[in-house]
């Protein structure tokens, strides 16, 4: 299933082809086949390349074929995409559960995901050639997806079914300032506030304890303590000038 083929039938907008290539690449897929697109040169169209945005290699390897039969060559299990189930034809499935079932098989099939044209979707005849129909769960009052959006959603669900990608861990969190550093900051800040006339040492009320609680909730790092002490130093530098005006 890693080599799943993405098949676009009668695509009319070059931008959708490029956006499809991008959606495939970010999920680790590369096999793109176009069936009788509106423009024969769509793979090298300026808009397609622009929308591919770094996935031009997918476009370069893509194939253009005249029929769905040709596009399905070598495929074991083809999935049509449709907004609503057909009265007749292959069974309709929610993508995530079907992909999980296919991935769990002892011999996972060579899969194809088939998408219809932007205006008309897939014809009944093309749907009948497939083994299953995928219907993306959407809001019942408006289930219309852009072609590349549908590709992205299915590519994501498929990638999750076959193992996903490891999320890169974030860089180690900066060292938290210890209580001594925070108390030193509070003492420095208290002096600066007195210098600029904001804090009356004769009637301090609860300003410093409140600031202490604020800093404790914030979980200051050593770098942040240095920044705040730098601000306090600058306050003390300008305090005499401020008092003289």
TrEMBL record:
It comes from the Bacteria. GO terms for cellular component: cytosol. Residues 5-156 form the tRNA/rRNA methyltransferase SpoU type domain. It catalyses: cytidine(32) in tRNA + S-adenosyl-L-methionine = 2'-O-methylcytidine(32) in tRNA + S-adenosyl-L-homocysteine + H(+); uridine(32) in tRNA + S-adenosyl-L-methionine = 2'-O-methyluridine(32) in tRNA + S-adenosyl-L-homocysteine + H(+). GO terms for molecular function: RNA binding; tRNA (cytidine(32)-2'-O)-methyltransferase activity; tRNA (cytidine(32)/uridine(32)-2'-O)-methyltransferase activity. InterPro entries: Alpha/beta_knot_MTases, RNA_MeTrfase_TrmJ/LasT, SpoU_MeTrfase, tRNA_m1G_MTases_N. Its EC number is 2.1.1.200. It is found in: Cytoplasm. One of its GO terms (biological process) is tRNA nucleoside ribose methylation. Keywords: Cytoplasm, Methyltransferase, S-adenosyl-L-methionine, Transferase, tRNA processing. Catalyzes the formation of 2'O-methylated cytidine (Cm32) or 2'O-methylated uridine (Um32) at position 32 in tRNA. Homodimer. Belongs to the class IV-like SAM-binding methyltransferase superfamily. RNA methyltransferase TrmH family. This is tRNA (cytidine/uridine-2'-O-)-methyltransferase TrmJ. It comes from Roseateles puraquae. The lineage of its organism: Bacteria, Pseudomonadati, Pseudomonadota, Betaproteobacteria, Burkholderiales.
């Amino acid at each position: 299933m890693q080599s799943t083929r993405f098949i676009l039938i009668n695509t009319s907008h070059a931008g959708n082809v490029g956006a499809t290539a991008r959606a495939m690449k970010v999920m680790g897929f590369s096999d793109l086949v176009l069936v009788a697109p509106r423009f024969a040169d769509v793979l090298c169209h300026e808009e397609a390349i622009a929308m591919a945005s770094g996935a031009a290699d997918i476009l370069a390897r893509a194939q253009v074929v005249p029929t769905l039969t040709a596009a399905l060559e070598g495929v074991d299990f083809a999935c049509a995409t449709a907004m609503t189930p057909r009265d007749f034809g292959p069974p309709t499935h929610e993508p995530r559960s079907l992909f999980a079932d296919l991935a769990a098989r002892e011999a996972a099939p060579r899969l194809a995901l088939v998408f219809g044209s932007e205006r008309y979707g897939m014809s009944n005849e093309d749907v009948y050639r497939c083994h299953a129909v995928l219907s993306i769960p959407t809001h019942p009052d408006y289930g219309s997806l852009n072609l590349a959006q549908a590709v992205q959603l299915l590519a994501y669900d498929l990638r999750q079914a076959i193992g996903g990608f490891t999320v890169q861990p974030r860089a180690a969190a900066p060292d938290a300032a210890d209580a001594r550093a925070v108390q030193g900051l509070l003492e420095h800040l208290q002096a600066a506030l007195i210098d600029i006339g904001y804090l009356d040492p004769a009637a301090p009320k609860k300003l410093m304890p409140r600031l202490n609680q604020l800093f404790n909730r914030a979980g200051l790092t050593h770098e942040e303590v240095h920044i705040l002490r730098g601000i306090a130093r600058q306050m003390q530098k300008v305090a005499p000038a401020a008092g003289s005006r």
